[in-house]
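Render this sequence as a predicted structure.
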Amino acid sequence: MKDRRHYSLPDLPYGYGDLAPVISEEQLRIHHTKHHKAYVEGANMLLDSLDKARESNTDVDYGAIAKQLSFNTGGHRLHSLFWMNLMKPKAGNVPGGKISDVLIEEFGSFERFRKEFSQTALKTEGSGWAVLSFCPEVMRPIILQVEKHNVNVTPRRPVIMALDVWEHAYYLDYRNDRSKYIENAWSILNWDEVNKRLEELL
């Protein structure tokens, strides 16, 4: 079989204890080294299955593999983005730069954006994500829910900020209190990273 490239688990841009008390060291370590790692390994296993089938000219269940690839690669993509838009807790954490201007223009105020995003995250059914995307077609930021990991955002509406609201993201620290997790997450959002992603699209 040809030596093809595979996905890899990215290192975190901070230590496992650096997001405490918002996200504890144990919670972050398990989330990164168990859950995210599982999506990376799952995606690589599926790619290997496709490679073997193509090289031996045999068939596999392509529909099932495509569905699982969507799930695992989506999980890898969203988690990789999620880690980068977190930082050490910062009191009164609000955006600056272009992202601040865009949010105020769209929502009227940062407080209104925060309210709408928080409600979107809270009302995400079951396992999923709340994301802020930016659509260059209409030059507007758009809040979306992502079911599970199946990223329903086209390349023309890339995600610039994501919040994981699967229970595995917060259960050790918050049990079933998703609203408290969402409230506290605002203090660890890395707005410089979000702003950089936005500016790359403008």
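Summary. The longest strand covers residues 128-135. The chain has a mean pLDDT of 92.
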